[in-house]
Batch of 4 targets.
Target 1
Amino acid sequence: MIKAAFFDIDGTLLSPATDRLIPQSTKDALVELRRRGVKCILCTGRPKVQLPWCITDGFPGFEGGFDSYITMTGSLCYDADGVYADTPISPEVSTRFIDLVDREGFDILILNREGSFASGHGPRMLELEDMVAFRYPEADIHELVKKPVYQFCAFVPPERDEELRQAMPDCFVTRWCDVFCDIVPSNSSKPAGIRAALEHYGLRQDETIAFGDGGNDVTMLQYAHIGVAMGNGNPEAKRAADYVTDDVDKDGIPKALRRFGLIG
């Protein structure tokens, strides 16, 4: 029996076609899923400060938002009772990455508990800001790494991912889209966040379903008992999934939940 459902945000819960809001059919499905006793858990690369109100505050029938939040690709997990998984990047690794950025000159985001901060605003950074409707403040990255860092976003093309993996062997490099890649501690990932949530709530892996659309959802879809890729997802996510549903704008989430008997 499925007791926990994990959801990515962009392209999964939020639709670019409806000004990045949760479609009403998805809202109705989440309300029914919770009413049937299934925990609804967010699993995202975003930090807490960048979660939209419809995620954190909820909506009629889904008051209070999601039951739990796996943020920054599994590096910081919390619910109403507090933080239950806290996995920052080590200061030594953060400093080594900043040295690489200084040599190579590409833009980055630094994600910490306070938010997401940009090293600069080149074309790739501006493209992401258009995609997520969010303006990242610029800050001194050398000062930011003096505090715990949970995730870096490197604004490089996909063909440079392997280069970053070689330079950062103690990190996990993954990618949602072609604009940037995520860099998190090697002991962190979306599956690591899910494992932390399952331990926290006393649940099992075979009681999970997960929904995603991007490359950084691949391991989550593979780890969940049932992995569902959105119809608008990329080929990598679809290959990793147990089931490919319809687009986010075409009732993809409720259709999949009905397919597996989780809602009526």
Target 2
Amino acid sequence: MKPKVLNQAKPPIRKEKFQLYLLVGQSNMAGRGYPEAQDTVPDRRVLRLNQAGAWEIAKEPIHFDKPVAGVGPGLAFGKAMAAQDTSVVIGLIPCAVGGSGIAVWQPGAYYEATKTNPYDDAIARAKLAMQAGTLKGIIWHQGETDSNPEGSNVYAQKLTELIARFRHDLATPNVPFIAGQLPEFQFVKLDSAGRRQVNEAAIRVNRSVAQLKKSVPNYAYVTAESTKDRGDQLHFDAASARLMGRRYAAAMLGLLKKARRHVTRTL
């Protein structure tokens, strides 16, 4: 068997021209969509930090958390960001871990399912990437694991703490942070008797994600409206993952534009 050839790439020499985005959360950020033809088309100005810590041209799957990693929002997000400014290169830092609850996204926390330390790994990979580029934003899609009465009741507090921790530990106090809401196809589940049950906890998680806009600076959220699952009532299909990626990009561009206006006013 021939060794797999990586499409390794060199980032721009000037750090400000290499714009980095950290991708964190659980499986719907990591991606579980089944690849389609358009998902195999790369953009030479969108790179990803691979599992070995090297930069390469981004192709699906972006993530490597589990063997089932598929199409997520990351590549569509990167392509949309690259399209807005042809003078820069986008660097994606994939760090999402399928099944991870928000409780393991803190220093020292160990996630048995993948035998990893999600938060510590993300910080280490982000710092490695920042040696070559500039961190411009963080996107987060998580909450499925916390869609239970206990987890949903403290989700707003936990997410607020997580955002502050990322900003502190990466020495980027004002970096934009965008969270994604859970899709409606997760709201209704069938119980053991086949009866439809509404998961009120998932709705509470979404409410928390939206309400943080009132209390957390440089924060936005995107909805998962009009998305479809891949057939399991849990994961986005490829088209929906791409849609979420474009929504993340639109929200990120909005926050970055707002930040530029603020800087201009203070000069």
Target 3
Amino acid sequence: MSLRWKIAALAAATACLVAAAVGVLVHLWTAQDVRQRAEAQAFNTVYAAMDVYRRTGALTDGAHLDPTDLPSALRHLADGDRHTAYDGRVEGNLGPSIWAAQRVGGPGSRVLAVRVNMSSELHTLRRLDATMAVASLIALAAATPLAVYGAGLLGRRLRRVSETAGRISAGDLDARSGPTKGGDEVADIAATVDLMADSLGRRLCSERQFTADVAHELRTPVGGLLAAVDLLPPGETEDLLRARVRDLRGLVEDLLEISRLDAGAEQPVRAHVPLGAVVSEAVARTGFDAEVTVASAAPAVETDPRRLERIVSNLVVNAHRHGAAPVQVTVEGRTVVVRDRGPGFPPDLLRGGPRRFHTGAKERGSGHGLGLTIALGQARLLGAELHLTNAPDGGAVATLRLPH
């Protein structure tokens, strides 16, 4: 149930509760008023009838002496006492009633009583209850659409903020909620989300600038190291230094590539190429053994072959470096699947995606954590989807789906 309907349901329930409470209070107050007025009428009537009876001996105003249906509470009154009693019996249109009685003094005294029928007043009370119920239903019918409309306005404002937060979490750091009408909590949330996006954007820009600056500054000394290594005499030391300098140069080139991807400075150069052939060549250039299977339905695709080779080679190198043989590469349709038989991707990588300089679990080997980051960035640049999962029977599975 959405927030809109929850608020509408709460408003309807509140309206029903208020209507019920008001109806009960009105009913109780009116019933008490009817009874009090009937008691006052009966009391005054028996007083007047007693006065006439003492003076003339005649019974007036519906008075009776020792009526058979007199409530037992009024049969044993002391001489001169005057009291009232409620009689809830209903006989046709007579009842409930209020009795008022007073004992007549002297030998063989009797009780003079008057009965006031409340049936007409109680009928009016029932009509009032029905009117209150109908009025409550009409008010509920009018209040519910208004509550739905008001809740819809609030829901749309919250949905706008939620969509902005979702776009920010997806990487769109330019997304903003913008000015929000009102000064309520929703406006505060929207302003906070915008401030968070501004702060996050500044930090990421600072990080990207730092990465680019470091890579550019390291490029020159690394080139000097390569030239110096070439001057060393052949031997084990020269081979060791050359391998380390080569690794350092690869790291610098990876950092430069990431900085260009982050800055949006890269643009794909598309061409129609056979997907199977490009993948096979990319696997061969890695120098690692991998079983390449190309389905007969693998089509020619329009993409940037250099970037596609970069993605496939990074996935294959990652599978060998952090996984275990055999590594299988399957091309079917526009999908490329790279699978190894190692321990699989760590849970935090599957949840949050690859992060630079973070390789996950120790059993997946060592590295700089840049291979998958570059592969993901290049895939986004090509408009492709790169999904990382673990196979049920073990091993990491990277699936690249190229767009049509």
Target 4
Amino acid sequence: MISYEQARRLVAEGLARASANYAGRPICVATCDAHGFLLAFARADGAPVRSIAISQGKAYSAARMGVGTDVFLERLQRENIQASSFCDPGLTGLPGGAVLKDAAGAVLGGVGISGLAPSEDQAIADGLAQSYGTF
């Protein structure tokens, strides 16, 4: 289970990583629990309004699918299917979502980043997921 405090720290760290590594370009960061329900969110000053829903959708999708959204996108493309085939309108294959797991590999939640290029969003999300245990 992800606590609110851990979720809040992940959001703060995501904003800090964007500031340090991407010239302070503004992003939105969302974290959710294993069911995809939002725990913490922040929109940096100047981040696109569309990035609010996108970041939350990326976090949700990672948690619900149990894989990063980049991996989910690869599956969609490989199998030539649409995300809508999963009968869940909240799913997205846009890169920038990473699954949060415990040491045993159980899904605890997801983190979603939006506002940069898809590969940059994914890099931040993956970095947060890899360092999750330190929060």
